[in-house]
């Protein structure tokens, strides 16, 4: 009987010790309004980053520092997601089974996955099909929330699309500028260039203004074609901002003052803008959504009660 008593006492002490350890391990790391985030939840969310980066850290101190860095980064993401989920709940945003089914079906089609292969993929991620459906529901809620508060204010202009195209799609291609110019030298060149610029702003044709002011005969009709590297740096910077048909402000080049007109822009080996316009527009719209989302999250954080205990 005494032996049984001591065995029971030993078990109880072991149980209490384990419970105390569990409390230490699984503690609260953040409070977001009336909800908490625990260390176990944080480590579960950070697991993919642990698997990716921790094997590289051989030194124990380096490994511990890396864990802290990953936790801080992931915790901020979890706080953002918690705020968005709370806002979706406050606004009573609903998601139907049909919306979830459609989302999953599109995902399977995009990745060419059968039902069996899709479930195998989820299992490899440690997810059941029902758990994944819950994740999708939360994701759709956030999309609806963001669309309702942000997307209606997003405008991507044709100028932004063209500018992005020049910077990212023409880079490395054989770009050729066809230019015309008003080139003014001698006394009072700057004042004459300003006068010529004012006439251009009033709608006087470029050729007519060039014939009146330019020191180089025929420059208003055309200077020829130039590759970017053939132009002086300050000229290249000015011309790169022009659209065909546009002219620049007066620019000092050496001892002269010049006003450039981009007659045409030629490229060899570049994808036509018409083919990539939808892709560029979507990319620019997503960038603006991300910027506004961060701004909105900042506003939500200012109104919320957030305490980080990590």
TrEMBL record:
All residue ranges annotated as the PpiC domain in the record: 161-264
UniProt-recorded Gene Ontology molecular function terms: peptidyl-prolyl cis-trans isomerase activity
InterPro entries: OMP_Chaperone_SurA, PPIase_dom_sf, PPIase_PpiC, Trigger_fact/SurA_dom_sf
UniProt name for this protein: PpiC domain-containing protein
Span of the signal peptide: 1-22
SUPFAM superfamilies named in the record: FKBP-like (SSF54534), Triger factor/SurA peptide-binding domain-like (SSF109998)
Source domain of life: Bacteria
Keywords: Isomerase, Rotamase, Signal
């Amino acid at each position: 009987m005494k032996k049984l008593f001591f065995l029971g006492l030993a078990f109880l002490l072991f149980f209490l010790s384990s419970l105390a350890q569990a409390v230490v391990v699984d503690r609260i790391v953040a409070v977001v309004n009336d909800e908490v985030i625990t260390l176990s939840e944080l480590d579960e969310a950070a697991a993919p980053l642990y698997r990716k980066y921790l094997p590289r850290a051989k030194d124990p101190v380096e490994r511990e520092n890396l864990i802290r860095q990953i936790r801080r980064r992931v915790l901020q993401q979890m706080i953002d997601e918690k705020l968005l989920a709370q806002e979706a709940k406050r606004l009573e945003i609903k998601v139907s089974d049909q919306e979830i089914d459609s989302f999953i079906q599109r995902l399977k089609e995009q990745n060419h996955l059968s039902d069996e292969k899709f479930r195998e993929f989820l299992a490899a991620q440690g997810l059941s099909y029902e758990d994944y459906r819950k994740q999708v529901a939360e994701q759709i809620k956030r999309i609806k929330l963001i669309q309702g508060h942000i997307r209606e204010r997003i405008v991507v202009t044709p100028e932004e699309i063209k500018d992005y195209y020049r910077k990212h799609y023409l880079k490395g291609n054989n770009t050729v500028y066809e230019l015309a110019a008003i080139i003014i030298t001698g006394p009072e060149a700057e004042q004459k260039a300003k006068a010529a610029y004012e006439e251009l702003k009033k709608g006087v044709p470029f050729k007519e203004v060039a014939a009146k002011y330019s020191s180089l005969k025929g420059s208003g009709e055309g200077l020829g074609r130039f590759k970017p590297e053939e132009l002086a740096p300050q000229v290249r910077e000015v011309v790169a901002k022009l659209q065909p048909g546009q002219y620049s402000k007066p620019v000092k080049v050496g001892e002269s003052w010049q006003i450039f007109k981009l007659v045409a822009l030629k490229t060899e080996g570049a994808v036509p803008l018409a083919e990539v316009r939808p892709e560029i527009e979507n990319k620019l719209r997503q960038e603006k959504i991300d910027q506004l989302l961060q701004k909105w999250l900042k506003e939500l954080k200012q109104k919320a009660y957030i305490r980080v205990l990590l």
